[in-house]
Amino acid sequence: MTTPAEFYETHRELLDKAIEAAGVRDYWSAYPESPSKSIYGETAAADGEQAFQALLGKDFPIEVPGATSHVATERSPYGIDLGIRYPKGDPGDLIAAARAALPGWRAVGPQGRAGIAAEILRRINARIFEMAHAVQHTSGQAFVMAFQAGGAHAQDRALEAIAVALAESTRIPAVTTWSKPQRGGDPLRMEKTSTVVGRGVALMIGCNTFPTWNGYPGLFASLVTGNPVIVKPHPGAVLPLAITVQIAREVLAEAGQDPNVVTLAVEERGDGIAATLATHPDVRIVDFTGSSEFGNWLEANARQAAVYTEKAGLNTVIIDSTDDYKAMLRNLAFSLSLYSGQMCTTPQNLLVPAAGIETDAGHRSADEFAADLGAAVGKLLGDPKRAAGTLGAIVNEGVLARLAEAGSLPSVVHPSTEVADEQFPGATLRTPLIARLDAAADDKAYTREWFGPISFVITTESTEHSLRLFTETVRHHGALTAAVYSTSAGVLAAAREAALDAGVHLSQNLLGGVFVNQTAAFSDLHGTAANPAATASLSDPAFVTGRFFTVQSRHHISEETHA
User: Fold this and answer.
1) Separation between Cα atoms, residue 530 and residue 536, nearest integer Å
2) What digits encode the pLDDT tens for the residues 53-89?
3) CB within 8 A of 154, min separation 6: which ones?
4) pLDDT tens track for 505-530
5) What is the distance, to the nearest Å, from the Cα of residue 430 to the centroid of all Cα atoms in its chain?
6) What span, in angstroms and rounded, lies between the C-alpha atoms of 60 and 448?
7) Considering the chain, what is the average pLDDT of its residues?
């Protein structure tokens, strides 16, 4: 057995570096994002794929409290048969098991919990190729993206949450000596202890598109702050989180802890156990990534819990002018195409003055800009192999339904087309759809979320009107990202003020290898909690401090004891 304290000492240097990085906010990464043999070993890729293949068509090896049956709900967007069966536990049994594990987990203390969490991450990283295949064939991400976003970057986001949780939960000393001078007598002396007490049972509700990247911050923040966690994956993306829970339970057992500190809750599609668990009086923390509809329902109905949601919104780009038109188009084309727009950060509304924009290539009308953007997307995705690696696969039927609906709009300037994947003939790939809309006439269309490869070039009266429309729509509907392109210092300043008013992170004049829909752990915050798209920011102190209380005890001590 390895004690929690020993795990902490093993990973102490890593945790200290992570805490420092979260404070400095410069580039830092603990987990290499390149699937290189020189980094992960000569056989790592083949071993990971073999481990993934070995799981297909079988019962997944994991214990679940109260399980009496198995369910298989996943289908690969790439057309291969998964057929993995997971044990299904009763919600009441899961909650009871988590409650029973709570006192022992509280007694471990923040450092011990952080050490165990860091060891869980080490073992997840050791299975990163297996995890990448699991993410690819449940979310539809292309393999390299699944390795990076679903693997290394998700692990960085987890470590960031661990670091912030550890720093915040150890801010108050565990033991202090208090001495108050008294006139004409000995001072009053007391010893005071401060214990971090978790809020209670936590529920992490996973999403279909980014099960690890979006799921890990809440999972690990809850663990480090003393809360047992029930992990409830999306029915379409169970495997990545099942592997995570399997590893977590293994480490917990080795540390002498109740493995039910982390449990897996699966369901048949339509069972609705997320709502059942989220509103149970013993569930005190809920983390959710997914649709605005269910996120809003959780915020309204899980009143007994601290609810952290990340939904979607009207991610907006304000286009005023540019001194590098080709680079701007390339950057926007990639942002619209990456993972077929199935990111909560993908731009939807591109606001362009009706009079057009000034560029280094001359004046471009709104129609010309829309056509040029469509051409840039076409050029980016012209090679089928590169297109497959950029687009990934369509994750579910809902995205296809929205694409079909958007295709019926009267002003489509770049229709969505099918793309073949040589490696996976059964994959469903689609290029982005771009439509032209008018700010005054088409507000019912662009004020609705169209999750997927669907974006709108919207003509406004002027850049000033674009800024007002941006602020109003984001305040009302929310957004996770925003961008502005302008050569005017005044416009950039106005855009920054508008973003502050709207409560959304802003990117300015992105032309190179950084894109609006990408964020870096330990530097970029994800979400602000300042608009309706999210109630949390990954990962700031507010993301962790609501997960625990600090409870004190105190007693008198004598002069001799103090000495």
Assistant:
1) 9
2) 999 999 999 999 999 999 999 999 999 999 999 999 9
3) 210, 212, 213, 216
4) 999 999 999 999 999 999 999 999 99
5) 23
6) 39
7) 96
How many Å apart are CA 73 and CA 258, to the nearest integer? 28
Cβ neighbours for 317, distance < 8 A, ≥ 6 positions apart: 332, 347, 349, 350, 351, 482, 483, 484, 485, 516
Length of the chain: 563
CA distance 526 to 506: 11
Mutual angle of helices 4-24 and 153-169, in 10-degree steps: 100
Integer-rounded Cα Rg, in Å, for the chain is 25
Cβ 461 vs Cβ 353: under 8 Å: yes
Give residue 559's pLDDT: 67
- Distance, CA of 136 to CA of 424 (rounded, Å): 12
Give yes or no for residue 561 having a pLDDT over 60.
no
Yes or no: say if 245 and 146 are a contact pair by the CB < 8 Å rule: no
Q: Are 307 and 473 in contact (CB under 8 A)?
A: no
Q: How far is CA 55 from CA 58, 133, 176, 503, in A?
A: 6, 11, 51, 44
CA distance 7 to 256: 12
pLDDT of residue 75: 95
Query: In which region does residue 477 sit, left (phi positive, over 0), alpha (psi from -120 to 50) or beta (all else)?
Result: alpha
Question: What is the per-residue DSSP string for 107-122?
Answer: HHHHHHHHHHHHHHHH
Note whether 559 and 186 are within 8 A (CB): yes
In the chain, count of helices (H) and strands (E)? 20, 21
Give pLDDT, residue 184: 84
CA–CA distance, 438 with 137 (Å, rounded to integer): 38
